[in-house]
């Protein structure tokens, strides 16, 4: 099997050399840049005037035309907010012409010419289940705490559910956080959100773009069964030192970018850098600044984090480049008892990593080669305060999880006429996970796993004229630790009924070998560990064992896009079947019992979004309905019986339940308006209402006495023990529902110009304007309610230079 895998890899490499050598026809290729910064202009349309040749730049600003007949053409580029560019190009048979186009910021556009990147993209790309976000769109959101962040923007994306301001997690169309792949410049980030859920590890102004693949993503992405969040950072200003400094009651931020070595001429080779840092101090300022607003500010919000990111880029004369980057993210939090306001637990996670990426445009081909290699590490520690260990127990109140390893890959993209495209590549990764955990039945779980995986993928997009687009893909994923080979076909398609009405669909098979320890029983769970697929037998809900210890799923997604004047409507029904979910066992009572069981899950829903964007007004509304049902093995009636010989008798059963992120209804409304003669005022508001989350109800309490030793023998003296309070959970997992959630956020931003490149921005934001008491969780012992953030005003000041 491994020999076959190597043979296919060799064939792909041969294909790549074949793509390099295709020079029979004339080719025009190149890059489009912002002249002031040298940053690539992404998703910009480039056309040969008076012909059918048109292309759209990718995330590198790259475009390509192939099979160009002999003649003289006008290379035409225009983008709203930039001056129009027209370049005369003469081609002969066999020519390969490389052009760099630099656009000046401005408002002059040729009369009678209207080229919209968004309009062309709609009819030439499938984009089923895909949302692309830029920093400009992120800043349209009301800035919670005065700081714009992708974590806040994601909350209005169709199909995305957030669990709240504190301990917030991301759930995309029925999938758990571990089933969503988070990528930063191609490197996996295992936890992108801080414990205070308003902020991510990503610096907004360092982002180039974000692709959110919520369902039906194609073969270039793997080892995840639900969704992909792909974040790309920009390179750094090629012409001058630029940046920002920002302060608010929550945090301080800084970013600086510029040339290490300036190009000797426009478009020439050079080095650039980008550095960003942000540090929160809300744990120190919340009580003094916001204490008068009551809890949780009065006792201070125990959250702090520090995020560091750096990048160096070498740009070649022909547009090729290489990046070297590194990051360090550090998050600290405490769980506070709602009754005594004392510390219950301390939580800390850290993520570090470094890597390199490269983009090569071969001199004799229109192909583009992308590659990456990186190493990253993520560690999570959870320490219970004042923990009293039970007799003969090795558990000291500490849970820990770690995942580290390398990942690398190379892919080749070949551009063909009429927006068609061929892409193929190879990926390799090696991971090590370690987990030290105590399950809900009091058994310790200590696991250490290693795995090397490899994948080959191929995808082809064919545009049949202006009507039909077909995008088949295939991924072959191999997991060495369990000797599992997973073939995964993917498919996307679109039919343009007209220029204003389009039908689309996507789907495929998906697998992953990363498992989360997050419990579906807890109302709030701060510990989310990771472990690789086990090599032990895993029991399924039907009583048998899995053939391959992988999490598996298939997706089906449909949709219709309708444009009515300046309104864009998008309706997407979707379906995901997680037909093989692996989790830490709920029925592990004896230490000798298996650590894992497998269940399944079905998620389905429909999302309707409407977007209006004209002149100074931007409106976006999203209405979502979803229904998620998981099935797993549990102890029947939650009972473990002990017979006269001291042996435990337990019966198992399959139970279906709604996971804790099953929010059935979710509505988001966003409005932004640019005011003032100089467009230096920005006003925005966002309203969200969501139906209740499910939770497992408390049935009763008991005195938890230790009766068995580590060998599960009855030799403990219960007469001398002071038992702890034990909780009897309802037999039905997540049989109850919390209350409805709704919140209004607003912000006002004013920009004061100081010079051509320098200005001051002040942002006043108010989160939860009408002070809604939204439930965070309820203490199981006392019944005390803990709420999300109350009304929360904040002022942010930013100096851009």
Question: Overview of this structure, please?
Answer:
With 801 residues, the chain is mostly beta strands. It folds into 2 domains: 24-117, Carboxypeptidase-like, regulatory domain (Immunoglobulin-like), CATH 2.60.40.1120; 130-696 and 732-800, Maltoporin, Chain A (Beta Barrel), CATH 2.40.170.20. It contains 5 helices and 45 strands. The protein has a 22-stranded antiparallel barrel. Strands 8-13-14-11-12 form a 5-stranded mixed β-sheet. The N and C termini lie far apart (57 Å). Residues 16-23 and 108-115 have low confidence and may be disordered.
Please render the helix and strand layout as text.
Elements lengths: L1 H19 L5 E9 L10 E4 L5 E3 L5 E7 L2 E7 L7 E7 L4 E8 L13 H8 L5 E4 L1 H4 L11 H5 L5 E3 L7 E3 L7 E5 L2 E2 L18 E7 L13 E7 L8 E6 L3 E11 L8 E11 L1 H9 L12 E13 L5 E16 L6 E18 L7 E17 L13 E18 L5 E18 L5 E21 L3 E12 L4 E13 L4 E12 L1 E3 L13 E3 L18 E14 L2 E18 L11 E19 L2 E26 L5 E10 L7 E11 L5 E10 L3 E2 L2 E7 L19 E6 L6 E2 L3 E13 L5 E9 L7 E4 L6 E3 L4 E9 L1
Parallel strand pairs: 1-7, 11-14
Antiparallel strand pairs: 1-4, 2-3, 2-5, 5-6, 8-13, 9-10, 11-12, 13-14, 15-16, 15-45, 16-17, 17-18, 18-19, 19-20, 20-21, 21-22, 22-23, 23-24, 24-25, 25-26, 26-27, 27-30, 28-29, 30-31, 31-32, 32-33, 33-34, 33-35, 35-36, 36-41, 37-40, 38-39, 41-42, 42-45, 43-44
């Amino acid at each position: 099997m491994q020999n076959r895998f190597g043979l296919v890899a060799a064939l792909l490499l041969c294909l790549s050399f074949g793509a390099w050598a295709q020079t029979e026809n004339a080719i025009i290729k190149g890059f489009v840049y912002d002249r002031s910064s040298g940053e690539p202009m992404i998703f910009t349309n480039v056309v040969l005037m008076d012909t059918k040749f048109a292309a759209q730049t990718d995330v590198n600003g790259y475009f390509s035309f192939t099979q160009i007949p002999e003649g003289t053409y006008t290379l035409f580029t225009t983008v709203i907010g930039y001056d129009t560019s027209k370049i005369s190009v003469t081609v002969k048979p066999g020519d390969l012409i490389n052009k760099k186009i630099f656009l000046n910021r401005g408002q002059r556009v040729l009369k009678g010419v209207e080229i919209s990147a968004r309009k062309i993209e709609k009819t030439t790309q499938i984009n089923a289940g895909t949302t692309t976000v830029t920093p400009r769109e992120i800043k349209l959101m009301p800035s919670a705490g005065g700081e714009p962040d992708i974590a806040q923007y994601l909350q209005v994306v169709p199909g995305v559910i957030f669990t709240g301001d504190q301990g917030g997690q991301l759930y995309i169309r029925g999938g758990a956080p571990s089933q969503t792949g988070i990528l930063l410049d191609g490197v996996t980030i295992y936890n992108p959100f801080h414990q205070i859920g308003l902020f991510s590890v990503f610096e907004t102004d360092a982002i180039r773009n974000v692709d959110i693949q919520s369902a039906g993503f194609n073969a270039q992405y793997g080892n995840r069964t639900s969704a992909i969040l792909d974040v790309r950072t920009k390179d750094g200003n090629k012409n001058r030192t630029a940046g920002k400094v920002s302060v608010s009651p929550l945090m301080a931020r800084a970013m600086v970018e510029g040339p290490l070595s300036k190009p000797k001429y426009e478009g020439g080779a050079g080095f650039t850098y980008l550095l960003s840092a942000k540090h929160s101090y809300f744990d120190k300022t919340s009580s003094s600044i916001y204490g008068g607003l009551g809890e949780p500010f009065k006792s201070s919000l125990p959250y702090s984090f520090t995020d560091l990111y750096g990048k160096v880029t070498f740009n070649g004369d022909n547009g090729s480049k290489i990046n070297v980057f590194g990051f360090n993210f550090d998050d600290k939090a405490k769980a506070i008892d709602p009754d005594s306001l004392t510390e219950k637990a301390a939580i800390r996670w850290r993520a570090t990593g470094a890597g390199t990426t490269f983009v090569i445009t071969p001199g004799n081909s229109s192909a583009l080669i992308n590659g990456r290699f990186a190493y990253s590490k993520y560690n999570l520690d959870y320490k219970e305060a004042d923990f009293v260990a039970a007799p003969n127990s090795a558990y000291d109140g500490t849970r820990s999880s770690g995942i580290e390893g390398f990942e690398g890959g190379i892919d080749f993209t070949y551009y063909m006429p009429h927006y068609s495209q061929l892409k193929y590549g190879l990926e390799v990764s090696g991971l090590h996970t370690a987990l030290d955990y105590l399950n809900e039945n009091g058994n310790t779980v200590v696991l250490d796993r290693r795995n090397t995986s490899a994948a080959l993928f191929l995808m082809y997009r064919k545009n049949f004229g202006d009507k039909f687009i077909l995008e088949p893909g295939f991924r072959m994923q191999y997991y060495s630790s369990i000797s599992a080979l997973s073939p995964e076909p993917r498919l996307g398609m679109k039919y343009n009924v007209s220029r204003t009405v389009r039908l689309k669909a996507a789907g495929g098979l998906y697998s992953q070998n990363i498992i989360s320890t997050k419990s579906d029983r807890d109302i709030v769970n701060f510990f989310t560990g990771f472990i690789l697929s086990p090599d032990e037998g895993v029991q399924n809900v039907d009583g048998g064992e899995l053939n391959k210890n992988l999490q598996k799923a298939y997706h089906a997604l449909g949709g219709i896009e309708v444009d009515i004047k300046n309104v864009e409507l998008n309706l997407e029904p979707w379906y995901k079947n997680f037909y093989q979910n692996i989790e830490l066992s709920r029925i592990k009572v004896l230490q000798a019992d298996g650590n894992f069981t497998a269940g399944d899950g079905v998620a389905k829903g429909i999302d309707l979004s409407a977007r209006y964007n004209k002149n100074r007004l931007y409106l976006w509304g999203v209405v979502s309905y979803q229904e998620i049902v998981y099935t797993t093995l549990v102890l029947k009636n939650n009972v473990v019986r002990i017979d006269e010989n001291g042996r435990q008798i337990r019966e198992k059963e399959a139970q279906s339940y709604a996971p804790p992120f099953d929010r059935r209804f979710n509505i988001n409304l966003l409005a932004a308006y640019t005011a003032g003669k100089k467009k230096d005022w920005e006003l925005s508001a966002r309203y969200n209402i969501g139906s209740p989350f499910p939770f497992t109800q408390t049935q009763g309490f008991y005195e938890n006495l230790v009766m068995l030793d580590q060998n599960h023998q009855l030799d403990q003296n219960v007469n001398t023990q002071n038992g702890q309070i034990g909780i009897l959970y309802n037999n039905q997992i997540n049989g109850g529902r919390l209350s409805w959630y709704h919140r209004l956020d607003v912000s006002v931003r004013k920009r004061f110009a100081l010079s051509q490149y320098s200005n001051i921005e002040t942002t006043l934001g108010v989160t939860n304007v009408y002070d809604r008491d939204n439930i965070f969780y309820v203490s199981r012992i006392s019944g005390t309610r803990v709420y999300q953030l109350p009304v929360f005003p904040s002022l942010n000041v930013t100096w851009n230079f």
